Amino acid sequence: MAVSCGNTQTPEKILKKNLSVYMEKNANDPESYQAMETKIVDTIFIRYLAKFEISMNEIDISDVESKIKKTEQDQLDYPEIDHSSLIKTYNEMNEISRDNIKKLKALDSADIAYVISDHRCRLKNNFGALSVSNFMVATDEKMNILLIEDDKDKATEVLREDFKNRFMENYNMEK
């Protein structure tokens, strides 16, 4: 019995190809691009991100509850100043967070949200010097590039917003 392996490509090979195409289109000097190392470091599931966002909303609620208590005490200490509109705003903020938590709890999916990779390459910088660059790369489950960023904190914030836009219908980001 003969067994054929076919022409299946590994996720790593697909990612490397997609990175080359991306760099051809987006690098300052695409001809200087030299891939050095690419490795998949994490797979982030929708369920995990939903739980993370729930915890962030719970922290927001706790913070706002503290502000409400302080404002209510200020109202007692300084009755000549009306604090009711501020308390109303705080309560509205908490209602938004509670609504977001309900939406997030509905996202109990084991589907992949992002595949995170580290990519090291040589590229010419803005001064024309060839330098080593380290990028965080986020892709979807099919290895389509969603983000390439050298600032991991910025990348995290961008991915949090992308998650809300891609997976949460009517997520309310106004707080």
Question: Can you summarize this structure?
Answer:
Helix content is 49%, strand content 23%. It has 175 residues and is an alpha+beta fold. The chain folds into two domains: 26-46 and 111-167, no CATH class; 48-105.
Question: Can you walk through the features of this model?
Answer:
By secondary structure, the protein is of the alpha+beta class. The chain is elongated and about 70 Å long. The chain contains four helices and four strands; from the N terminus they run αβααβββα. Strands 1-2-3-4 form a four-stranded antiparallel sheet. The protein has two domains: 26-46 and 111-167, no CATH class; 48-105. Helix 2 runs antiparallel to helix 3 (84-105).
Keywords:
4 helices; 175 residues; 2 domains; 4 strands; alpha+beta; elongated
Helix content: 40-55%
- In what range is the share of β-strand residues? 15-25%
Note the total helix count: 4
Largest sheet strand order: 1-2-3-4
The total strand number stands at 4
On the 0-100 scale, what is the average pLDDT?
91
Q: What's the shape?
A: elongated
How many strands, what sense, and barrel or not for the largest sheet? 4 strands, antiparallel
What is the CA-atom radius of gyration, in angstroms?
Answer: 23 Å
Q: How many domains in all?
A: 2
Task: Catalogue the unreliable spans.
Answer: none
Q: Strand-and-helix sequence, N→C? A: HEHHEEEH
Structural class: alpha+beta
**Spatial separation of the terminal alpha carbons:** 64 Å
